[in-house]
Automatic annotation (TrEMBL):
Superkingdom in the source lineage: Bacteria
Protein name: IPT/TIG domain-containing protein
Transmembrane segments: none
InterPro entries per the UniProt record, alphabetical: IPT_dom
Signal peptide limits: 1-31
Organism: Flavobacterium taihuense
Alphabetic keyword roster: Signal
Pfam families: TIG
PROSITE patterns: PROKAR_LIPOPROTEIN (PS51257)
Boundaries of every IPT/TIG domain copy: 132-200
């Protein structure tokens, strides 16, 4: 209540005192009295400063419903969700109420309904979803005309952009969106917006080395590895898309990805390094070597949960991005474990 403009706070406190009987005792008849006109004129967020009418509300925030005839209020509904209110915080002209965090926002009526002994009044009011979250999209190395799937959450009436260009949505649910890539999408990021905010992909289009399949490599191998499965489909072992790389590895061994053919794998000019998501069956250290340069191996502490890691060119002793790379090695320390590698590609500036 500390953020409500003082004149509205005073009116609510006065009502509370009246209800508690400090000023006078209330009879049943007086409890039913009021302006006699039931109407909602506005809804405003309860915050410091002037009360500004709004047409949408955020769950877990307080709002002031303004109008008249509220003295005998019995029920309040947002999107047909029965919402608790404290009758002490009700006057004939104002209701102070918290929008419950469980209030539905999808496939909802977009109505505020106040039920009183005088009748019921319905008012247009939208419950905002949480801001979208962007998990991933697949395939990353899509080209113009390809249909890609975006994964995340809170995709209510989504607006999708590739770079700065708005793209039509083919289909969407709260957790998935399908779009067709426009021309000029390469190396651009994808963003999804709803009425509450915007989320942007962490990967740029066309920057994958492995994304369910390998792109532009000669083959995989290594030493001390077994049970290599580059098309793993166990959901809990996948970070992005539908598949991941799974490698059982012995101590001080390496899983090797070769890209020497045709001069090596091209590197985007604005790449700052190699990016990948990875976890281990048991927490341990592992190292990454790029281009066969064992003088600049980079060590990481990994856990049994997926996380995103970046090997910068500067970590590898390079002042600028190379034109191509020919090899990536994921090496184990003295622990026998299982590697899970996903979403391997380039990190851009």
């Amino acid at each position: 209540m500390k953020n409500i403009k003082i004149k509205y706070l005073l009116s609510i406190i006065s009502m509370a005192l009246l209800v508690l009987g400090v000023f006078s005792s209330c009879s049943e008849d007086s409890a039913d009295s009021g302006s006699g006109t039931l109407t909602i004129t506005s809804v405003a967020k309860a915050e410091e400063g002037d009360l500004v009418p709004v047409t949408q509300g955020d769950p877990k925030n307080y709002y002031i419903i303004r109008g008249s005839g509220f003295t005998t209020v019995e029920k309040i509904y947002f999107n047909d969700f029965d919402t608790y209110f404290n009758p002490v915080l009700v006057t004939d002209t104002e209701i102070f109420v918290l929008i419950d965090e469980k209030t539905p926002y999808a496939d909802a009526s977009s109505k505020l309904k106040v039920v009183t002994k005088l009748g019921t009044i319905v008012y247009d009011f939208v419950i905002s979803p949480p801001s979208p979250t962007f998990g991933s999209f697949n395939p990353i190395n899509a080209v113009e005309g390809d249909v890609i799937t975006i994964y995340g959450n809170y995709f209510l009436n989504p607006i999708v952009k590739v770079g700065a260009e708005s793209v039509p949505v083919i289909s969407s649910t709260l957790t998935e969106i399908k779009i067709k890539l426009p021309a000029g999408a390469d190396k651009k990021y994808i963003s999804v917006s709803n009425i509450s905010g915007t989320a942007t992909s962490t990967d740029a289009i066309g920057c994958a080395i492995y994304d369910d399949v390998f792109w532009g490599i000669d083959g995989v191998g290594g030493w001390g590895v077994s049970n290599t499965n580059i098309e793993n489909t166990t959901r809990e072992e996948v970070a992005q898309g539908d598949k991941a790389i799974k490698v059982d590895i012995t101590p001080w061994s390496g899983f090797q990805i070769d890209m020497w053919a045709n001069g090596g794998h091209p590197v985007p000019a604005n790449a700052i390094g190699i990016k990948f998501q990875m976890k281990l069956k048991a927490a341990a250290k592992m190292r990454v070597v790029v281009g066969g340069d064992w003088g600049h191996e980079v060590w990481f502490n990994l856990t049994s949960e997926y996380a995103t890691y970046v090997v910068k060119w500067s970590d590898l002793g390079m002042a600028v991005a190379p034109a191509t790379i020919g090899q990536i090695v994921f090496g184990s320390d003295g622990t026998a474990t299982t590697f899970y590698i996903d979403n391997l590609g380039f990190a851009l500036k």
